[in-house]
Amino acid sequence: MNNSINGKRKLKILFVSTSYPSDEKDWRGRFTANLVTALSLHGDLGLDIWAPPGKRPNNVGDATLPAEKIWMKKMVSKGGIAHILRTRGLLAADVICLLLLKLRHVYRRSSDSDILHINWLQNALPLWGNRKPAIIVVLGSDYKLLQLKGMPQILRLILRKRKCIISPNAGWMSPRLNELFGDLAEIRPISFGVDQRWFEITRNAIANTASPWIVVSRVTPQKIGPLFEWGKGLFGKKHQLHLIGPMQKDMVIPDWVQYHGSASPDELCKKWFPDSAGLITLSQHDEGRPQVVLEAMASGLPVVASDVPAHLDVIRHQHTGWIATSAIEFKEAITSLCNVETNNTIGNEARRWTKENIGTWHDCASRYIQAYYDLLEVNK
Predict the structure, then answer these.
(1) How far apart are the first and last CA of the chain?
(2) Strands of 322-323's sheet in order across
(3) Closest listed residue to residue 295, CA positions, set 147, 165, 196, 153
(4) Given strand 186-187, what is the order of strands in its sheet?
(5) To which H or E segment does residue 375 belong?
(6) pLDDT at 2
C-alpha cells in the first residue's frame, strides 16, 4: 500500500451501525453518535455513516437511502435489532435477512471507501464478495453470536478475504476472539470514551442518614437482575432507590422503588449524578462494557455491580467500585458506601482510573484512527 492516502486526500470511511439516537433524549446508540461526532472533528477523515435516522454532524455524509431510513426507523421503534432477536428468536429471521440484504447493497455501492468500520459481528456477514479492509467492533451482545453453530466458521470465511482488525470494546472478550480468529485478524481491544462533561461533574455531599441511589437501565428481567429481591427492606425512607430507564418488558416495580422512566443524558448529568450516593447495576445481561458505568465512574460515583465480565473488567472490588455476588454482600456495599469518607475515596479513585484508562471520545477516536492507518499500512 503506498502513502498516497496520507497527505494527498482524506481517508474515506464507511461507518455502519444499526443503532443511532433519533434525538438528544434518545438513549439508544448514544455511543454511536458520540463516536461519530469525535471522528468528524479529525480533518484527515471523510466519514460516511449508514445508520438509523438521527442528527449527524454537518461534515458527515449520509450513506443511508431514504427507503432504508424508513425501514430502520420501524426496526428501532420495535426496540432495535438486538431486542427483536432477544424477544422473537427464530421468528426474527425475516428481519435479519432484510437487514443483511440492505447491508449487502450498501457495501457494494460504497466501493470507493478505504475502510469499513462495522459495529456488531452480524453486520459483517454481508461482506462476502469484497476485499475492503475492515474494523469489526464487538460490543458484547453480538459476542454471544459466537455460540451459534456454524457462526465462527462463516465469519472465518469472510475474514479470509480481507485485512481486518476485530475490535472488542472490552478486553475480557479478547481471549475467545483470539482463539477463533487470531490467525486471520488482529484482535485489538479499543475502549469507547466518555464525554468530557462527566469528568467535570461536581458531586454534592451525601448524607449518612439519607442516601439516594440510582439505577440507570432498560427495564428487563436480565438488566434488573436480583435488584428487587436484594433491595427489599434495604431501601425505603432511609435509603431511596431511583430507577431510571425505559420499560422494555413488563415488570412489576416494587412500591419502595421510585420509577422515573427514561431520562436524557443532560438530565442524568445535571440532576441525578451530582446528588446520588452511587450507581447500582446488578445486570445479568450480555454486554461488552456498559457506558453508563463508565460515565458514573468518570463522575466520581461509586458503582455497586454484579460479577459479570463486563463489570469485572472495569471495577476493582472496594477500590474503584464494589462487586456484590449475594444479598449479604449487596447490603454490605450499600452500608459501607453510605459512609461519606468511603464513598468519596472510592468515587475519586473510580474517576482517576477512568480518566487514565478510558479517556474522552476524542481519545477513543484517536485510537480508531490509528487502527485505520495500521490497516492501510501507512503512517498517520
Answers:
(1) 13
(2) 257-259, 241-244, 213-216, 278-281, 303-305, 322-323
(3) 196
(4) 61-62, 45-50, 11-16, 115-119, 134-138, 164-168, 186-187
(5) helix 361-376
(6) 42
Select from 29, 357, 359 the least CA-distant residue to 196. Answer: 359
Confirm whether 5-193+360-376 and 196-357 share one CATH topology. yes
Q: What is the Cα–Cα distance from 163 to 218, expressed in whole angstroms? A: 36
φ and ψ at residue 15, rounded to 5 degrees = -105, 120
For residue 202, what is the DSSP state? -
Dist. CA 332–CA 13, nearest whole Å: 49
Question: What tens digit of pLDDT does each residue of 268-297 get?
Answer: 999 999 999 999 999 997 777 899 999 999
CATH fold of 196-357: Rossmann fold (3.40.50)
In the prediction, which pLDDT does 189 show? 96
CB 259 within 8 A of CB 231: no
Which amino acid is located at 137 in the chain?
A: V
Nine cell digits for residue 7: 497527505
Bridge partners for 46 per DSSP: 12
| pLDDT 10s digits, 85-128 | 656 655 567 778 888 899 999 999 998 999 999 999 989 999 98
pTM: 0.89
- 3-class secondary structure, 14: strand
Q: What is the CATH number of domain 5-193+360-376?
A: 3.40.50.2000
Domain ranges of the chain: 5-193+360-376, 196-357
